[in-house]
Amino acid sequence: MQIKFDTQKKEAEIKFLNQETKIRDLKIKEQASLLTKKNYQITAFLVLMIGLFVIAYFWKKSQNLKNILASEKIIKETEEHERIRIAKDIHDDLGSGLSKINFLSELISQKTDHLPEIQNNSEAVKETSKKMIENMRDLIWALNPDNTTIANLLARIREYSTDYLEDYPIEIQNSFPENPPQTNITKESHRELFMVVKESLNNIVKHSKATKVNFTANINSKFLELSIKDDGIGFQTETIKNGNGLRNMQTRLHTIDGVFKIVSENSKGTEINVSVPLEKIIK
Amino acid sequence: MNIQVGIVEDEKQIRESLTVLINGSEGFSCIHAFETAEEAIISIPSLHLDVVLMDIHLPGKDGIDCILNLKPTCNSVQFLMCTSFEDTDSVFKALKAGTSGYITKTTQPSKILDAIVEVFNGGSPMSSNIARKVVNSFQNSNAENKEMLKLSEREKEILHLLSKGLRYKEIADSLFLSTETVRTHIRNIYEKLHVNSRIEALNKVFPK
Whole-model pTM? Predict the structure, then answer.
């Protein structure tokens, strides 16, 4: 009886112990599951953080790139601005000095009719200072990017030619394209082309004895073409081909891959043809 | 009758030479020459001048300021700007301030006299660059001004041709007008430009 009771008691104890173990196991399991849950949370959090970090990194990088591009643009604009500013300063300073020289030499010329030698020299001073002023003005003009379009170049050439020949008994007939493109061209090509026109007109006034000039400008899909034709005395092209002025024009056009052609014959006038490939001059 | 010319120029030699040139030419007389804009602003309103040659670069107030000050009280005086170069920006500012013309200092003396006669007779020169600036200025001005003083179709046409490099005679020929009529149109354009810029300036000072 006693034994049976003992056994029962022990069984009850074992049962109790078993239950306790089970409870502990459950508790451990619960804790473990809690731990894995926490682990998941931590991992998710870490992944999110890394993700955010990566996004932030790339965003920052693209922002940096944008900043670099923006600052490069600003630098370029500032450079352009500075170039124009310096040019303008020089132009104001040298310009007023040169125009004073020009003005005063003109006065000397006027007062020295009886002293031809002095008059010749002062005329030379006057011409030189005038040329310098004009060159400087052209330079400043071409520095302003607003000015260097095909349309503005043609307008300037047309205006210059008409104004220049107005002082001489030479009639000019212009034939220019109706609506030339507002495409930007390089300032070098702008300058060279304008200089060639100036030189050609200067030659006409100085040497040709012409009374009429036909100035034609043309623009097609590939070339910009200028033709300046006069009805003057002309010349044997072989004899003057190596003259300084003509060679200068050739060199100028050569730097922008242009072609310069001169057709002339004694007493049959002169025709100057200039052709420049657009792809070489467009910015 | 002599054209009464005044001069505002800080360079002594140029001022004196211009005076000599003008007094030595028939039909012109110059008895008032000023060294600074400040002196000119005080004196010019009480003088009966026809044309004033104004240097752009002056110590203190510049030529443009000087014209802005004088224009409201001296409506009958024509201002002719003298610049070292045809610097489009300052020339345009001068035109907006009320100048009727400009010459560069490399202009030959005989042409200076021509220019004086021209502005005296109501002519106004305009280059292709200036024409482009004028067009832009009218396009950019606010709607209210446009209503008050807009360009006529003819004026727009003339500006367009000018901006392409055509000169007065060519424009006259292509529009079947006389050169004189073209000149009148250009003068009216300048007048509108001047009034518009004055209204704009007032609007800035007294915003609505």
Answer: 0.73
